[in-house]
Amino acid sequence: MNQQTTSMSPENASGRLLNFHIFRYDPQQKGDKPRTEVYQLRETPGMTIFIALNQIRQQQDPSLQFDFVCRAGICGSCAMVINGLPTLACRTLTSKFKQGDITLMPLPGFELIGDLSVDTGKFMRELAERLKLWLHPHHHEIDVHSIEAPMAPEQAAALYELERCVECGVCVSACATKQMRETFVGAVGMMKIARFELDSRDGRTAEDFYHVIGNQDGVFGCMTLLGCQDNCPKDLPHMQQIAYLRRKMAATIL
Amino acid sequence: MTARTLIPRIFSYQLTGHPWSARADKLQSATGLMLASFLVFHLHFESSILLGKEVFFHLVQILEGGLFTDDGRGVSAFTQIFSVFMLLIVVLHAAMALRRFPSQLGQWRALRGHLVCVKHKDTQAWFWQLATGFILFFLVPAHLFTMILHPEIGPNLSAARVVQDNFWLLYALLLPAVVIHGLIGLYRVAVKWGLVSNRSVLRKVIKLLIIYLILLGCASLLAYVVIGLDLPSQVSPYISKI
Description:
The complex is a heterodimer.
Chain A: H1 2-6, H2 10-13, E1 17-24, E2 35-42, H3 49-59, E3 79-82, E4 85-88, E5 101-105, E6 111-114, E7 117-119, H4 120-131, H5 153-163, H6 170-173, H7 176-180, H8 186-198, H9 206-213, H10 227-231, H11 238-252
Parallel strand pairs in A: 1-5
Antiparallel strand pairs in A: 1-2, 3-4, 3-5, 6-7
Helix pairs in contact in A: 5-8, 8-11
Chain B: H1 3-6, H2 19-46, H3 53-63, H4 76-97, H5 105-117, H6 121-149, H7 155-163, H8 168-192, H9 199-230
């Protein structure tokens, strides 16, 4: 790794010095206390927070914990709070921060694994089980001889738009409602419900969905703070979908 | 944080929809919309004092039902009935909006922590709505009870209320609180039910309206103070010159 550092082109070597203020705490380690540690790193062209974190871990502190898989905004693993904005580390360029000071915090509202690593998987699984986020077909008997009903291309496209969620957990962390009320389903749950509500293959009616999200923990608990809409790294239409569900759910009850 | 959500719950009332959840949300938005719309009209009506005593006097006569009386004079009992009606709407709105208040200390801590950690304008706007909403619990009933018990409105009588009865203090506190709360509320209702898709434009409009209404309210309050300071200690109702 040292070789790489020394083989940088002259313009890279003159890159500005970045200060990373990183939250450090390992719950597994007895006696460990939450603290902020500062790491200095020279900026290179096109550097993302994800690249910077890997460099810090390789060159300065191998104990630093953070998650990543795809480094391309597809897996949703590297979500964290970067200078007050929850977002994906791999899609955030360091050049965005003119001051050169970058504060990294783990996503709030999730179980902390250590440092910047949180357990979003456990949360997402529990949510899926609770809201039954899978396709409930019209007929339960499977007949392999019957021809599958066709889906209009427009509907398929609309479904695909909502399917783009990568379960990064940013909408959960950006939502003050969710932070105050842990049983609130959050935008990710609502987005998935909206997706199945739209799906013509799903047999559930509006009343069925009302049983799941027609309460204070569901769509009527949402206070429209729109942290989900403004921070979603995949730019999913949360505001529009939650408003749609709210109107739909409100219309089922007089 | 997630300990409670991890406990498997086969059946829990929290997990099933309740008809009142939808009704409460609809009622909160509907009463809020009514109150905010009324506020905009109210502030303009009372600011007609800026156009002179005569204009204000005649507007009051019309609004107090002067069109339906023989002598064209308003009936102050109408103000009383309307104030009672508004109080009921406020009570209903407050009861529905109470669902939104953080009720436990832990929730306040979570909200504070969130506001410090995540920088988000709409969440900060909601916090201001929450704070002003709490203030309005105490200021709006004071204003409405005054109008129920002493419904006399007129250029001289209203000015006397502001200066001689020291109601300027109530109005000076009420004005910014109610304008901020109501206008942010209008914005929220619009985006909440999907009535508006262009948020940035709406946000600018709401910001301008907040500034405009506060300035308008301040100017009219000042006008009442100026009129009130000129009044004798025994105030007599304004007599129209037309």
